[in-house]
Write a structure and sequence with these properties.
- The chain is of the alpha+beta class and about 725 residues long.
- About 35% of the residues lie in helices and about 20% in strands.
- The protein is built from 23 helices and 24 strands.
- Helix 11 (about 445-455) packs antiparallel against helix 15 (about 515-525) and helix 15 (about 515-525) crosses helix 16 (about 530-540).
């Protein structure tokens, strides 16, 4: 071939790569689609097998780039019973009783970003806040339009699935299930580098979110106005995107709308086996968008949506052995080794037995035939013992890789609980139904603590294998040792090159400055997840103050005639979701990790929490607890209190200002009366909030009050 020909091919490939980068990664195209197609067609004519033609989208490999979601992709609250559906309806509806029902697809969540109607980026769900850029592979999915008929800016969220027919025809021998294959196909580096082909996938949309006009491109039209989510679903279909479903459930009473929703669960249960793809339940969303805004979100899920899951699938197998392993919190738990059995399309060989108490409760023995259950991605568990197994119960079983299971039936014996930690040999303590290793330096605890820290801080380059290796060779004996690692240290590890080592050090360096909430969450304190960590950090403010509270924990004071109380605990229980048990666990956990926390505080910059100022209003500075049966969902009442400057907690204590009590208030009302806490009726609160000043009388034991602009004068 002549030099001019080769130069032209090289030029075309470089230009296609450059324009792809401008389009997909930067969203700043220099040429239109027709001009890009001309370059593509010419390269295809000159060099049909050129590698550039196998790449769809930008050169950056799919899955290697992190994407911050403009609209977080939250998890959903779960349900499995009719009673839970009924409770959800009562908690989320006051007047509008209308819900959108959609099948809960068992695939891989995907967010599509359209700018001026053109698809510019696709991202996996990831942790809900950040996902992986998979634009190149998403563009290979046949039913994802590269352009929609509306020329504005929006984000479309949905699920990528693989049809069961395609899976059975092409992939059944190489992948365990369609869901895993769909996820892998989305994240593979090149079109032909994985087990699956993205062109065999299907995208089904759940909803769309629109960029506000002041943030959108100047040429983007004004976002359409919708009152109901079901209208958005119909709009998706009109612009060329296939929705997952759009069944509306409604009724004139709570009972009627509940029955309409339950009928949907029965419909999808009955038709599950006939669907072209896998589903694992039904998603219900409050259809009225304005009421969604009122209900808001938790740190984990929206309050206006519910994922109803199909009943779990069961299977029978044989208990072959019981191993014990030490977890991050020191809990030593039994793991059942069972003869392989397929449940929900997955070959199961290990199940959880939860704790020593569960082993005793089940009366289980090695060599027993057992019934196991698996729900979705939840770890399978043993739910019933069916008596001694026979060799016939092992016949014909195969491992997940297809090899035959050739293990003899074990002699029947009772699993023995260990007296010492299986990792560090420290004496175990009995903690109710649990066995616990209290040695924070236990190798198993250190590995899992470090791994938990790295995952919480999204250090993707430090996974389980590397963590185990760092601990095994003694480079990391405690969490702060991570930040003392050097290039020379890392290069002593097997299969660790300079590029990988540099990536590890770079990720560690990026986490040297942390907000207090992130720090507390990543520590892995028992019972303290991201949501509680955020609330605690907002209340306390800084790490020094928190550690002072740890030191003062055992101090007590007498408050007038009230029983001796702990002021530190009293302060913490004013935080929503924190009771006395959680408060004590938090302080005890920090006390046990005092040296680790102190060491980390010297290495890292732990910044004070930025506390958003609360709304000023009639309820400012006052704490409320809500109990009993009320005329509207408690969540709505809580939001109304917060909007007026008040604070809502879940427990009654001497520090509580007011209890909002409905019918059948129960023990919280009794405790409030015993502690001398003022009790308000729902109508009293409504009057305060609506008028901003009291009426002539406010009923707490029919006491008379003065009209005032502050709540202190009401009671």
């Amino acid at each position: 071939m002549g030099g001019e020909f080769l130069d032209r091919v090289k030029h075309l490939a470089a230009e296609i790569a450059r324009h792809s980068h401008l389009y997909y990664n930067l969203a700043t195209p220099e040429i239109d689609d027709a001009e890009f197609d001309t370059l593509w067609d010419e390269l295809k004519r000159l060099s049909p097998d050129h590698p550039q033609l196998r790449r769809v989208g930008a050169e950056v490999p799919a899955g290697s780039v992190k994407v911050d979601h403009r609209f977080p992709m939250r998890s959903l609250d779960k349900a499995t019973t009719d009673e839970e559906i009924s409770h959800f309806v009562q908690e989320t509806t006051a007047e509008g009783r209308r819900f959108l029902a959609q099948p809960k697809l068992d695939g891989s969540a995907l967010s599509l970003e359209y700018r001026r109607g053109r698809l510019v980026r696709a991202a996996t769900r990831g942790n809900g806040e950040r996902g992986e850029d998979v634009t190149a592979n998403a563009l290979r999915i046949p039913n994802i339009p590269h352009r929609i008929t509306w020329g504005g800016d929006c984000h479309v969220r949905g699920e990528v699935v693989m049809s069961l027919d395609v899976f059975r025809e092409k992939y059944a021998d190489i992948a365990p299930n369609p869901r895993n294959l769909a996820a892998g196909s989305l994240r593979q580096k090149y079109a032909d580098s994985g087990k699956g082909d993205a062109s065999d996938l299907i995208f089904l949309a759940y909803d769309a979110r629109f960029i506000p006009s002041d943030e959108a491109h100047p040429d983007s039209p004004k976002p359409p106005h919708f009152e109901y989510d079901s209208e958005i679903v119909h709009w998706l279909r009109s612009v060329g995107i296939e929705p997952a479903g759009d069944q509306v459930c409604e009724g004139d009473t709570v009972d009627n709308v509940t029955m309409s929703m339950i009928s949907q669960t029965k419909y999808w249960t009955d038709n599950r086996a006939n669907l072209p793809w896998e589903i694992d339940g039904v998603v219900f969303k409050l259809d009225d968008l304005s009421k969604r805004e009122l209900l808001g979100m938790t740190a984990h899920h929206p309050r206006w949506a519910l994922a109803w899951k199909f009943p779990p699938e069961e299977a029978v197998t044989v208990l072959m052995d019981v191993d014990w392993q030490t977890g991050r919190t020191g809990a030593v738990t039994p793991v059942a080794r069972v003869a392989p059995v397929v449940v929900s399309g997955v070959t199961v060989e290990n199940t959880t037995l939860h704790n020593a108490g569960e082993v005793e409760r089940l009366g289980i023995q090695i060599g027993d035939k057992v019934r196991i259950v698996r729900r979705g991605d939840v770890i399978p568990k043993i739910i019933e013992v069916l008596g001694p197994a026979t060799s016939a119960d092992l016949a014909g079983r195969i491992h997940g890789d297809g090899s035959p299971f050739e293990v003899a039936l074990p002699s029947r014996s009772i699993p023995e609980s260990p007296l010492f930690c299986p990792e560090c040999e420290s004496p175990l303590e009995i903690d109710g139904a649990f066995l616990r290793c209290n040695n924070l330096d236990c190798p198993a605890r250190v590995v899992r603590t470090v791994l938990y820290w790295c995952r919480a801080l999204e250090m993707d380059g430090i996974g389980q294998k590397l963590t185990e290796q760092l601990c095994d060779v003694g480079l990391v004996r405690t969490l702060p040792d991570l930040y003392r690692l050097s290039m020379d240290d890392l290069l002593t590890l097997d299969r660790m090159g300079e590029k990988s080592a540099s990536n590890v050090l770079s990720q560690l360096e990026s986490t040297r400055s942390l907000m207090l909430s992130k720090f507390l969450s990543a520590l892995g304190l028992p019972g303290i997840g991201p949501e509680l960590a955020t609330s605690i950090a907002a209340e306390v403010g800084d790490l020094d103050q928190l550690m002072m509270m740890v030191e003062a924990k055992d101090e007590t004071i007498n408050v007038e005639s009230k029983p001796s109380q702990n002021p530190v605990i009293d302060r913490l229980v004013t935080i929503d979701g924190v009771g006395e048990t959680v408060a004590s666990s938090l302080l005890d956990g920090l006390a046990a990790r005092r040296s680790i926390v102190t060491d980390l505080a010297e290495i890292l910059e732990i910044t004070n929490e930025i506390v958003s100022s609360t709304s000023s209003g009639i309820l400012e500075g006052k704490t409320f607890c809500i109990t009993g049966t009320l005329s509207r969902p408690r969540k709505e009442i809580a939001l109304a209190i917060k909007a007026s400057g008040g604070k809502v907690v879940s427990t009654v204590s001497g520090k509580l200002d007011y209890l909002i009590a409905g019918e059948s208030a129960g023990s919280k009302l009794e405790k409030a009366q015993r502690l001398g806490v003022s009790v308000l009726q729902e109508s009293d609160l409504d009057t305060i909030i609506s008028k901003g000043a009291p009426s002539d009388t406010l009923s707490t034991e029919e006491s008379s009050v003065q009209r005032s602009g502050t709540l202190d004068d009401w009671v």
